[in-house]
Description:
By secondary structure, this protein is mainly alpha-helical. The chain has a single domain, classed as Orthogonal Bundle (Arc Repressor Mutant, subunit A). It has helices spanning 4-16, 19-26, 30-44, 60-92; strands at residues 49-52, 55-58. The protein has a two-stranded antiparallel sheet with strand order 1-2. The protein is elongated and about 60 Å long.
Amino acid sequence: MVDLGVLKTFIAVIDTGSVVAAARERGYSPAAVSRQMAWLQRRLDVRFFEPAGRSIRPTTDALEFALRARELVDEVDRFERYSRRFSAARDRA
């Protein structure tokens, strides 16, 4: 099973185009983000990033995977908001 936090970090790397910027956004060290990306790539047996000078570039697989990852993360966020409203309504009853 893929960890939701790792998916959020993956999306941050895609969106920022940088491990360092994604680390800053997620509140992690760049080394922690690199470890998460290495774990995800090993877990799925796919290469998501290619070197591009001093930075990285997402592969076609990364961009495709990011679309589904965003859907999943967004759905979980919607469910968490629903759960809070559901719980609050039960507390008022």
